Amino acid sequence: MRKHKLIFSLQLGFTLLVCAFLIVPVVLSILAGLTANYFIGLESGLTLRWIMEVWDGYRDTIFRSVGIAVACLALTLLLGIPTAYVLARTRNRLARLIEELLVLPIAMPGLATALALIATYGAMRGFRTSWAFILVGHVLFTLPFMVRSVLAVLSAIDLKTLEEGAASLGAGFRQRFFDVVLPNCRNGILAGSLMVVTLSMGEFNMTWLLHTPLTKTLPVGLADAYASLRLEIGSAYTLIFFLMIMPLLLGMQALARPRPTRFNKDDTSDDASKLLGMSLRTPLIPEKK
Q: What is the pLDDT of residue 146?
């Protein structure tokens, strides 16, 4: 019994040390954005002056970053889920090759990808100077995370049997995809969405080359603040970043939470399509043979 308590205490202590290693720098950075003088510390007093300066001078970069992250999430969902579905259904050498090719934007340095985009589309002046140019780079960088997350979930279930069962009950392709496939890969979609939003919001290497003075994003503005040795401004920037991204991430998790299916006791219809619509909205995950 004492041995188990000792092991539990060691595990708890190790977990707390890891949490402290990750959280302490963030807390110190946030405190730096709230102190009147970073070099004196908390003794100089607390202030909201730096946050107001960031809001007055850089709020356009904050809203632009949030807009690009949301647009990036929408595009990766539209492109990534169908791609993962096709790859999961087509498990041959060509599918594996495409799967590996999709990882290339991650394997390549962000600067190289940005230079490739500039060399390809730089002559399109209107597109080059718009925020859509940054969005394309973010989609290239984050799409593999969405595809991999959804594909991992679809590969772990017997997707073929599920679809054949639904088809035997009269479900068409659209009903199978939206009522069978999507509910069963909900966790993969959520994991991919969280990665896409956080990576897009914090992406710097590629954005540094793709942005213009009129299309600065939050990480670029943060780098400018630190480069000019305005540490309090940079820390206040970090604080605003957390205040904006945390509700967004929590909201996404709440939206992706499975909802219980409610059955109507009075509904005694034997129509197969109704039964299919009611039952298949609850994720079904049979073990893969």
A: 93
Length of the chain: 289
Reading phi first (left if > 0) and then psi (alpha if -120 to 50, else beta), residue 210 is in alpha
Positive or negative CA dihedral for 19, 145, 96, 286?
positive
Task: Find the mean pLDDT for residues 127-140.
Answer: 91
Asked if residues 135 and 211 have their Cβ atoms less than 8 Å apart, the reply is no
Name the strand (E) or helix (H) holding 151: helix 131-155
Asked whether the beta carbons of 158 and 287 are under 8 A apart, the reply is yes
Joined tokens for residue 95: 């599918």
Taking the C-alpha atoms of residue 100 and residue 147, their distance in angstroms, rounded to an integer, is: 11
| Three-state SS at 282 | coil
Calculated CA dihedral for residues 150, 153, 154, 157, nearest 10 degrees: -170
pLDDT band at 272; cut points 50, 70, 90 = very low
Distance of CA 44 to the CA centre of its chain: 38
Strands (E), the chain: 35-37, 41-46
With H, G, I as helix, E, B as strand and everything else as coil, classify residue 123.
Answer: coil
